[in-house]
Amino acid sequence: MDNKEQTDKILFLLKSIDEKLDKLLRMKHIYMADEVPEGLDVMTLLSLPDHLRTTATALIENGVSTAEDLAKITSKKRAVESSYLNQLVRMGHVRKFRKGKKVFFEIQSSL
After folding, report:
1. With 74 labelled, which of 45, 56, 63, 92 sits at a CA distance of 20 to 30 A?
2. Residues sharing a CB contact under 8 Å with residue 67, sequence separation 6 or more, in sequence order
3. Distance CA 82, CA 88 (A)
4. Residue 45 · residue 53 · CB < 8 Å
């Protein structure tokens, strides 16, 4: 790979990172006004692996949801989303509850 290709690849990756940070900052401004739960602030989201961050972000944007709801948003299989959501539950970022036969998830409120 020559220098131009390396430079182009680095610029592409930096642009991608910049866009993701901008999206997270916009989310912070939107949710700060609504007092978003402290458990999933921007720094916490950034510390999560990509697959969990995607699921957490979809849950923040969608509100109380089932794994099936989030699977439609993220284009992942329901079982995969369920696994990721349960990981977020174990980490203390998400609350899990049941209504009838359905299992719902919501951002854990520390308030």
Report:
1. 92
2. 78, 79, 81, 82, 85, 103, 105
3. 10
4. yes
Element (H, E) at 90: helix 78-91
DSSP string, 91-103: HTSEEEEEETTEE
Neighbours of 3 (CB within 10 A): 7
The string of pLDDT tens digits covering residues 32-73 is: 544 444 557 778 888 889 999 999 989 988 889 999 999 999
Q: What residue ranges in 2-109 does DSSP mark as E strands?
A: 94-99, 102-107
Q: Are 94 and 85 in contact (CB under 8 A)?
A: yes
The CATH number of whichever domain residue 60 belongs to comes to 1.10.10.10
Q: Within a 13 Å sphere around the CA of 65, how many CA atoms are in the beta-carbon half?
A: 24
Full domain range(s) for residue 37: 3-107
Q: 105: which 2 tokens?
A: 């998830």
pTM for this entry? 0.64
